[in-house]
Amino acid sequence: MIRVYTCLFFVTFSCAVVASPPVGETFGHLKSGEEASIYTLTSEAGLMVRVTDFGATLVELYAPDASGTIDDVVLGFDDVSGYESEDNQYFGCTTGRVCNRIANARFTLNGKEYKLAANDGVNHLHGGATRSLDKVLWKAEPFETDTQQGVAFSYSSPDGEEGYPGNLIIRTTYSLMRQTNELQIDYLATTDVPTPVNLTNHAYFNLSGAGSETVLEHVLQLNADRYTPSDDTLIPTGEIAPVADTPLDFREPHVIGDRIQELVDTAALGYDHNFVLNEPAGDSSIRLAAVLTDPRSGRRLTIRTSQPAIQLYSGNFLKGQKGKGERSYPLRSALCLETQFSPDSVNQPKFPSIVLKPDQEWRAHTMLTFSAVPR
Fold it and tell me: Do 9 and 369 form a contact (C-beta atoms < 8 A)?
């Protein structure tokens, strides 16, 4: 069994008691005429998130700052039309079938070559051009138990969709714990023939609040001694190199903007790098991945995951597009911390395999912990 794991959120403020399963509200209509829905999850202690069945997407996430003020800390849009527009840069979506890049938009599996959409220069990015997981409507199943409230989103990707082999059945479940303010995002995928799978969530975070001017003043620590160097198209070379003596050394907390200028004139245009996470302690399958702190608001985000790598992306293509509440999202006003398998793993024999077989399940789990520290 392939085991990977995807998203928990912890906060500590109060609101109304959760009483029933979430009810879908209209989130607008797709260009196809289909209606999208959005679901609101709240906990007894106060965390609130909103998720939509379009792309199984995280739309809003409200967290308190050091003074208890609540603000939305993820980028997104007010209705589904924004997510279908050119202004959407994978905001908050479930990303795949294979997230990140595949070199030359092709791979070979069991002696057969598969050709994919080249939607990032010559390479394949985030699952494809027209029917990647962020661009389809998923089936929503709201639920409630004694300990949690949530929505399970499911999608059946048919054989050949976006060039991938196999009928892939995918389930993304958002579960909000009543008492502990844990938002759990679990992924499960099964297939009828061998096929590559690499799923992640593509939330853009600004802990000062979505629409704040910059994320470069945030302080980041990564539990990664190594990274995967890449070529001029951001495809890994196959080498796994130390971060020491590079601008990628976040082993100790470091202000993101301090060294980004050293990378602006590179192919990455800033931070757009994959870090190989250090092994988890003891017999745990969950490892510390990152700690992100905003000195301005006092909000802190701690990420733990069972995935072997994490992509740091500093919003290098944000362009001032209008998002929720007409807030502008300027260049480097948010960042992504995407737990994943390394890019192009399907073509890299030295990287852990992402090939899922019919007798296996692909499961994913990452924990994001929100807290507040004195300013």
Answer: yes
Burial of 150 (0-12, 13-18, 19+ CB in 10 A): buried
Q: Which residue is associated with the tokens 């797709």?
A: 30
pLDDT for 184 beyond 50: yes
Domain of residue 201 covers 2-372
Q: What is the CA radius of gyration of the chain?
A: 19
Task: Note the residue count of the chain.
Answer: 375
State the virtual CA torsion across 206, 210, 212, 217 in degrees, nearest 10. Answer: 0
- Report the number of distinct structural domains present in the chain: 1
Whether the pLDDT of residue 104 is over 70: the answer is yes
> Domain holding 90: CATH number?
2.70.98.10
Q: What is the dihedral of CA 209, 298, 368, 144, to 10 degrees?
A: -70
Task: Report pTM.
Answer: 0.93
Contact 274, 240 (CB under 8 A): no
Give catalytic residues, as residue numbers. Answer: 202, 338
Question: Has residue 4 got a pLDDT over 60?
Answer: no
